[in-house]
Amino acid sequence: MSDDLWVYSDKVKNHFTNPKNILEVDEKEYDYDGKGQVGSPACGDMMVVYIKVENQKIKDFKWKTFGCASAIASTSVLSEMVTRNGGMSLEKAYEITPEQIIENLEGLPANKIHCSVLGDKALRAAIDDYFKKQEKKNPYKDEDVEIVCECFNISKEDIRMEVLEGATNFSILQARTKIGTQCGKCIDKTKKLLKEYVDKYYKEKIYNPEKD
Q1: I need a surface site. Which of 50, 105, 122, 172 has the fewest CB within 10 A?
Q2: Listed GO molecular functions (predicted)?
Q3: Under a CB-based contact definition with an 8 Å cutoff, are residues 136 and 157 in contact?
Q4: Per-residue pLDDT tens for 86-103?
């Protein structure tokens, strides 16, 4: 693998070497309102996010990870994004995308963009947990999604996220999701969507949403 595939922006390097808002105490000592965990140490990447909420805004964001430089930098910059200016609203925070995180990092190597997915997924899980603890329904969770594979209830967004997590060909996508393995009616549409997302995210060695 050539060295230029691993080129990071100065902002990524800064957040990796000086990460912001890491949880430096045991979680039992941190009075959080919501916790979200994604990934697994066995797979090499795991992210845990803790949030404090006040007046429906994220007043504090702490995190821990077992991950690479991109995962660390992505979550560090995410922690700044949601806590600046008095805290981001839960609604806006729930809608944060990997593309927004990557843009705030001034780009990521295309082969590392899957790392930016960890933070936003864990953040959404933390917000879900917050509402669950409040015994309320999360009003920001989109229940009206476009389903591509009805057999396995796989949405268009599920496919996009799988591509962001490294599923760059149909064989990988199918192995992960079983999409198209039952009736097969969704295969053509799935392959079209897959190509669309791969072309978008992996067309250059360095991906930056500002270029789209």
Answers
A1: 172
A2: iron ion binding; iron-sulfur cluster binding
A3: no
A4: 999 999 999 999 999 999
Q: What is the pLDDT of residues 103-112, one digit of tens each?
A: 999 998 888 8
Residue from 115, 149, 151, 183 carrying the catalytic annotation: 115
* Superfamily of domain covering 147-200: BFD-like [2Fe-2S]-binding domain (1.10.10.1100)
Give the DSSP letter string of 12-34: HHHHHHS-SSB--S-GGGS--SE
Active site (annotated) includes residue 183: no
Topology of domain 3-140, per CATH? Sufe protein. Chain: A (3.90.1010)
From the list 43, 68, 149, 151, the catalytic residue is 43
Of 7-11, 27-31, 94-98, least confident by mean pLDDT is 7-11
What tokens were used for 197? 């997302």
